[in-house]
Design goal:
Strand order of the largest sheet: 1-2
Order of helices and strands: HEHEEE
Radius of gyration: 15 Å
Largest sheet: 2 strands, parallel
Number of helices: 2
Distance between the termini: 27 Å
Number of strands: 4
Helix content: 40-55%
Shape: flat
Structural class: alpha+beta
Length: 85
Amino acid sequence: MLRSRAVTLICGILFLQCLSVVTALSARGEVLIAANGGVLEEAPENTIYAYELAVAQGAKVIKVDVRGTKDGEAVIIKDATIDRT
């Protein structure tokens, strides 16, 4: 339970940081390039390689999907099950 709350708190802090970046960029009239899970055409989603490619191609933000498992661990996966991946 404590780990779940810690993950929730960390995700909330990261979300607020992303909002501040978006606000700062939009105030300067800049376009924010974001990657959802990395560069999916060239690498498996939500992998370090996909994130590195996204940054190399100009992404300023990477959206990461974090889910909790039944035993309280945090994992990076978009879907509720592993069937698709």
